[in-house]
Design goal:
Layout (H helix, E strand, L loop, with lengths): L1 H16 L3 H18 L2 H18 L2 H18 L2 H14 L6 H18 L2 H17 L3 H18 L2 H17 L3 H18 L2 H17 L3 H18 L2 H21 L1
Helix pairs in contact: 1-2, 1-3, 2-3, 3-4, 3-5, 4-5, 5-6, 5-7, 6-7, 7-8, 7-9, 8-9, 9-10, 9-11, 10-11, 11-12, 11-13, 12-13
Length: 262
C-alpha cells in the first residue's frame, strides 16, 4: 500500500541525509521492487529519482542521469507535474558533472516554471540555491548572489530550516568566490549551526569540504587540511565517491604546495 511505499522511501531519504548511502539504497530498492509489483508508476518515478541522486553522490553521474530520465518519463506519463519539477531539479544538479552546465541551468529553470505554475515554493527554493551554486561555479557571481538571496528569503518565509541551511551554505561558496574569505567562513558556520538543528550531517560534511577550500585559498593550509581531512573521512565512510575524489584532489594540491615551499 501507499503507506508502505512512503515509509520505505522516507527511511531511505533519512539514511541519505546522514551519509549512510548503502542503507539508503537498500530501502530504495525494496520500495522500487514493491512499486513495480503493484504497478505504481508514480511511486516508481519518485524512487528512481531518489536512486539517481544517491548514485550521483556515489560518483557516477552518467548512471544517475539514466535513472533521472526514467523517472522523468514516468512522471510525464502519469501527468504528475510536482514530480516532474523535482526530477528536473535533480537533473539540474546532475548535468554539470557531465560537463553540460547549460543543460543543468535549463532543467532548473524549467522546474522553476512548473513550481510557479502549481504554487510549489518548496521545490522553488531548492532550485534557487541550485542555480546559485551552479552560477557560482560558472563565475557568474552577481547572478549567483541574486539566486541565493531569493533562496534565503523563500526558505525563511516557509520556515524550512534545511533549505535555509543549504542556501546559507551556498552563500558561503559565493562569498568565497568573491574572495571574501572571512564572510564566507561566517556563512559556513551559520549554515553548519542551522543544519545541525535538523540533523543533516551530509550537508555538514560538504560544508567542511568547502570551508576547507576557503581556508586553502585564504592561506591557512593547516586549517584547510583539518577540515578537508574531516570531510574526507565522512565521504569515505559513506561511500560518497564523487566527494571523496574531490577531497583527495584538494589534499593532494595542499601536499604539492607544501613541497613547493620547502
Amino acid at each position: 500500500d501507499r503507506g508502505k511505499q512512503n515509509t520505505l522511501n522516507n527511511i531511505g531519504v533519512v539514511y541519505m541525509e546522514t551519509g549512510r548511502l548503502d542503507e539508503a539504497m537498500h530501502y530504495f530498492m525494496e520500495g522500487l521492487e514493491y512499486e513495480e509489483m503493484v504497478g505504481d508508476k508514480c511511486g516508481m518515478a519518485g524512487t528512481l529519482d531518489n536512486i539517481g541522486n544517491l548514485i550521483h553522490t556515489k560518483g557516477d553521474a552518467e548512471k544517475a542521469l539514466a535513472y533521472h530520465q526514467r523517472s522523468l518519463d514516468l512522471y510525464r506519463m502519469v501527468g504528475d507535474r510536482n514530480g516532474m519539477a523535482w526530477c528536473l531539479s535533480s537533473l539540474g544538479y546532475t548535468y554539470p558533472d557531465l560537463g553540460q552546465a547549460e543543460k543543468g541551468v535549463k532543467c532548473f529553470l524549467e522546474s522553476s516554471d512548473i513550481c510557479r505554475d502549481i504554487g510549489d515554493q518548496h521545490i522553488l527554493v531548492y532550485n534557487c540555491y541550485g542555480l546559485a551554486d551552479l552560477n557560482a561555479d560558472l563565475g557568474k557571481l552577481d547572478r549567483a548572489e541574486g539566486y541565493v538571496n531569493d533562496a534565503l528569503a523563500l526558505s525563511k518565509e516557509l520556515g524550512a530550516k534545511r533549505e535555509e541551511g543549504a542556501a546559507t551554505y551556498v552563500l558561503g561558496k559565493v562569498l568565497r568566490e568573491r574572495g571574501k574569505y572571512q564572510e564566507a567562513m561566517a556563512a559556513f558556520e551559520a549554515a553548519r549551526e542551522i543544519l545541525g538543528e535538523v540533523g543533516d550531517t551530509y550537508l555538514g560534511s560538504l560544508i567542511d569540504y568547502d570551508a576547507g577550500l576557503c581556508l586553502k585559498a585564504s592561506g591557512d593550509p593547516a586549517g584547510a587540511r583539518e577540515l578537508l581531512t574531516r570531510a574526507r573521512i565522512y565521504f569515505e565512510r559513506g561511500g560518497m565517491g564523487l566527494w571523496l575524489k574531490r577531497s583527495d584532489e584538494a589534499l593532494a594540491d595542499l601536499d604539492q604546495q607544501r613541497l613547493a615551499s620547502m
